[in-house]
Amino acid sequence: MDGGSEGRSIWARLGHFFGHNEEESLERAIIDARAEGEVEAEEESMLLGILRFNDLKVEDTMTPRTDIDCVSQNATIREAVAAVIASGHSRIPIYKDTRDNIVGIVHAKDLLSCLAEPDQQDRQVSSIMREPFFVPETKNIRTLLQEFRSQKQHIAIALDEYGGTSGLITIEDVLEEIVGDIQDEHDKPSQEDIRDMGQGVYEMSGRAFLEDLAELGMPLQSDEVDTIGGYLSTEAGHVPAAGETFTVEGWKFTILDADKKHIKKLSACRATQEEAS
């Protein structure tokens, strides 16, 4: 952006939004500003994320217990290393008996130091695990973010009202509520992210790259996002739900699976003349 009136920073524009009467919806004001071209789609998404941030609790954002990647305290360091490699996570919870009883966290960097000594690889992973950081699933995530910072933690185990494991939440999960999906080196799409189903129909992950779709004849371009999920979310101004359809550049996209943070799976086929018009 330049320094002119059209290039005001997003923070400078906040004063305009908060100048509305209390009876008016700040959320509506932001959406209207996007429609009028006062803010970009990415800015709108971030502002709406900030607005909704206060109302979110850990249970709204966490990874459920059943989906947590973890290893038993009886696992060897060698086995824990394999779990870290398979999951792509730098920290793995350690459980005793069942995953309902998390007793520690093991860091990849601690495992690496053990790999340098072959005789250490058959030790139990519990010998190098760290104390877990527990939080109630009802905790407000704004408060949790402050605790992550003050206690220098990156991962927390969420507990239900009975003290059992409810889920897992990371500092990345919290930040994604504001800025959207954060991709790292473990999030890159694989070849399986785009599948040719025959008869001109494709199924794909929301993380499929636009440049890969261009090779299939889908000329989608964006200066803001790299993936089809991000592209359609930007076009819609929100994360589309399963069942929503979009016709773009002669192609019809149908959302097959999505959560409140991102599109997981969708299909694409050539749009009919009526759909494209």
Description:
By secondary structure, this protein is of the alpha+beta class. Helix content is 33%, strand content 23%. It folds into 3 domains: 5-53, no CATH class; 59-179, CBS-domain (Roll); 189-276, Uridine Diphospho-n-acetylenolpyruvylglucosamine Reductase, domain 3 (2-Layer Sandwich), CATH 3.30.465. Strand 3 (91-96) and strand 4 (98-107) form a beta hairpin. It has 11 helices and 12 strands. The radius of gyration is 22 Å and the shape is globular. The strands form 3 sheets. It has a 5-stranded antiparallel beta sheet with strand order 8-9-12-11-10, covered by helices on one side. Mean pLDDT is 80; it is low at 1-12, 19-24 and 185-191. Helix 2 (26-35) packs antiparallel against helix 3 and helix 5 (77-87) packs across helix 6 (108-115). The protein has helices at 10-17, 26-35, 41-53, 58-61, 77-87, 108-115, 141-151, 171-179, 210-214, 228-236, 273-276, and strands at residues 63-64, 71-72, 91-96, 98-107, 134-136, 155-159, 165-170, 194-198, 201-205, 245-248, 251-258, 263-270.
